[in-house]
Write a structure and sequence with these properties.
The complex is a heterodimer.
Chain A lengths: L6 E10 L3 H9 L4 H8 L2 E11 L4 E5 L6 H8 L7 E6 L2 E2 L5 H10 L1 E4 L11 H5 L1 H6 L3 H14 L15 H14 L4 E5 L7 H18 L2 E6 L2 H7 L2 E6 L2 E6 L1 H6 L4 H7 L4 H4 L2 H4 L13 E3 L4 H11 L3 E5 L5 E6 H9 L2
Parallel strand pairs in A: 3-8, 3-9, 6-7, 7-8, 11-12
Antiparallel strand pairs in A: 1-2, 1-4, 4-5, 9-10, 12-13
Chain B lengths: L1 H4 L6 H29 L1 H16 L2 H16 L2 H16 L3 H31 L1 H16 L2 H12 L3 H12 L1 H12 L3 H9 L4 H30 L1 H5 L7 H10 L2 H30 L8
The structure holds adenosine-5'-diphosphate and magnesium ion (MG).
Chain lengths: 342, 295
């Protein structure tokens, strides 16, 4: 298994249009996306992006359509060249790589899953899954062995000889996932990989990904326009608007401390009980009083704590850390207050 | 008012001299390089001769079975195979077997050459817009120029015979394969190319594993058109010495042999239909998996 590697993005700008290089200073000194388009006919794709994506974690990038998500993720494997800035993967700047080095980088360090699957219609599941290995020049025997392992792992055993047009959308994207995983690259890039799927299938695929991630520990960059998906998958979430990052943090940070009205607006629709953790709602320990005997560990969702409270019949719970040390207290009133956001 | 009633054309003597000097210089070129050009095309002549000898000297039953096998593996359709068999047997029964074999060998060689030249050219056009903008007008001219006209320089250079006939047929029949190769590659979904790039394909892998396979049904349509156009040229090519079904037709025209003309004409139509059905069915089979069934 490939060692996880982190990704750092530094001062990244992308301007679409002729003469982008000469417009970069205008953007640096504060020209907005709208002004740039009106005055110079250029589109500001990304505006001074700075990010640290931790090795082996799922980094979600969220934003509405046109906010620059696809542009950003395509800079990581340089399907798009930046106008300025650095993309450091394992300390090496992708932007400065020669064409040969870039090809090797794409073959061994990254793998990508696409919104519209992008499977080759003339190849069956097995041949599609082995595409990345074929490009690397891996011998046929080895290719089939690896592909079969991943086909089985994503739940498509028995479908190896089927063609993409004989499969449902969900199954096609499993092939897309198997193709990416066969590469054994430490970085997995997923551009709205589940957005084209029906809601139930989508949740199913999210579970597949989370389940796999426990085992494969890749640095996953996951793009979505769906906040629920973002909160469910993301170890860390970045929110993008008009090519700018307007907030970065954990799901807790986003839901509890939205950076502006725009994000607050999104967050209003979220099921808070499932997202917010007990430590965000608890009240401080009171000195010299006995702790309630029932307890929950930090990181438990409010929903689960509430269930625990009701089931045990107690009126208060102790919140503890992983080592069972008490951190705070929780009762139904504090839970409800956190749920409704006061 | 002579200026308005008669087009102000170039001076007659000047025009005559112009034509004469172009003709002269072309003749000079022919005299100087004709032999060289002829020996350049010698391998082509040998290819033609071997193909024709194979088709005419092999026992007819072997050729017949061979064509049936190709029809079956191309189309996987019994109706097409039976139709092809009936057509060939009728052609043979009416005494046109040898001429038909000569024509088929000619079409075969012409198609092979068109593929060998046309597909690389089509690929180059799809890759570089500059090449496309140069080649497209040339193809327009090739397709609209009356075929008799470009027989003239070909005959001046190479005389009467198989090779000049072949060259004329190839020039006439090659444009569809070039155009449709170019078109097929350009129509390949950008998502597919992005996926190919994202997995680190180099230029050749991108072409051979993604672009050509996805363009193949379109390229097959081009090959089909090329074969049809080559067949359409058979009679004209026979004027400069190509043997086969065209020559009896030519004889029938000059001697008013109505039945001879009709028989050979129908034989041409017959093999055209066989080629067309088999290559189209083959193209369809290639396309089997490319239609999206589910959303
Ligand atoms: N090749 C391009 N040329 C010009 N503008 C582009 C190009 N690609 C993307 N854009 C623009 O950049 C912005 C971000 O696009 P994109 O990254 O595709 O957004 P998202 O994936 O978030 O929907 C949009 O305004 C889009 O119109
Ligand atoms: Mg997008």
């Amino acid at each position: 298994m490939a060692e996880p590697i982190g990704i750092q993005i530094r001062n990244l700008y992308k301007i679409f249009g002729n003469d982008a290089a000469s417009l970069i200073d205008k953007v640096r000194t504060g020209t907005t996306k709208t002004e740039l388009n009106d005055k110079y006919g250029a589109v500001l794709g990304l505006n001074n992006i700075n990010m640290d994506m931790a090795a082996g974690r799922i980094q979600v990038i969220m934003g509405l359509s046109g906010s620059g998500k696809s542009t950003l993720i395509r800079h990581i494997n340089r399907l798009i060249d930046p106008t300025a800035g650095e993309v450091l993967v394992g300390g090496e700047d992708v932007v400065k790589m020669s064409p040969e080095a870039l090809r090797e980088f794409r073959r061994h360090k990254t793998a990508m899953v696409f919104q519209k699957f992008a499977l080759l219609p003339n190849r069956n599941v097995l041949e599609n899954t082995g595409y990345g290995l074929e490009v690397q020049g891996i011998p046929r025997e080895k290719r089939i062995e690896t592909s079969m392992r991943w086909i089985e792992r994503v739940g498509l055993k028995g479908f190896e000889k089927k063609y993409p047009n004989q499969l449902s959308g969900g199954m096609q994207q499993r092939v897309g996932l198997a193709r990416a995983l066969s590469n054994d690259a430490p970085i997995l890039l997923m551009d709205e990989a589940f957005s084209a799927l029906d809601p139930l299938i989508r949740v199913d695929m999210q579970s597949v990904l989370l389940d796999l991630q426990k085992e494969i520990r890749k640095t996953v960059v996951f793009i979505t326009h769906d906040l629920d998906e973002a909160l469910r998958l993301g170890d860390s979430i970045a929110i993008l608007r008009d090519g700018e990052i307007i907030q970065q943090g954990t799901s807790q940070d986003i839901v509890l401390k939205p950076a502006d009205a725009y994000i607050a607006n999104f967050v209003r629709e979220v099921n808070r009980g499932r997202v917010i953790h007990v430590e965000a709602a608890m009240s401080p320990l009171v000195a010299d009083t006995a702790l309630p005997s029932g307890s929950v560990t930090e990181g438990t969702s409010l929903d689960d704590a509430m269930k625990h409270l009701v089931a045990s019949g107690a009126d208060r719970l102790t919140v503890t850390d992983a080592q069972n040390r008490p951190l705070g207290l929780l009762d139904s009133a504090t839970i409800v207050a956190a749920l409704v956001g006061i | 008012m002579e200026f308005l009633s008669k087009f102000p054309q170039m001076d007659d003597a000047l025009l005559r001299d112009l034509k004469k000097s172009i003709d002269e210089s072309f003749r000079g070129f022919t005299r100087a390089y004709g032999d060289g050009i002829e020996s350049f095309f010698e391998p082509l002549r040998l290819f033609l001769v071997y193909a024709e000898q194979f088709m005419t000297r092999t026992p007819w039953i072997v050729i017949f079975l061979l064509i049936m096998a190709i029809a079956w593996f191309g189309s996987r359709n019994w109706k097409i195979v039976v139709g092809a068999a009936a057509t060939l047997l009728l052609i043979g029964y009416f005494g046109m077997w040898d001429d038909t074999m000569k024509t088929i060998s000619m079409i075969f060689v012409c198609t092979v050459i068109s593929i060998a030249l046309g597909i690389p050219l089509g690929i180059a056009m799809s890759r570089w817009n500059r090449v496309q903008s140069v080649v497209n007008p040339i193809l327009d001219v090739m397709q609209t120029m009356p075929s008799f006209v470009y027989l003239i320089p070909v005959v001046m250079l190479l005389g009467i015979g198989k090779v000049p006939g072949l060259i004329a047929v190839v020039i006439y029949a090659m444009p569809p394969i070039i155009r449709l190769t170019n078109l097929g590659i350009r129509l390949v979904d950008a998502d597919m190319l992005e996926a190919a790039d994202a997995f680190g394909s180099n230029g050749w892998q991108r072409l051979s594993k993604v672009q050509l396979p996805l363009a193949l049904p379109t390229i097959m349509a081009g090959i089909n058109q090329t074969i049809m156009m080559a067949l359409a040229m058979v009679v004209i090519a026979s004027m400069i010495g190509v043997q086969g079904l065209g020559q009896p037709v030519l004889r029938a025209i000059s001697n008013q042999y109505f039945t001879l003309g009709m028989f050979n004409g129908f034989a041409i139509v017959g093999i055209a239909i066989i080629f067309d059905r088999v290559s189209q069915a083959f193209g369809k089979r290639l396309q089997k998996h490319t239609e999206v069934v589910h959303g």
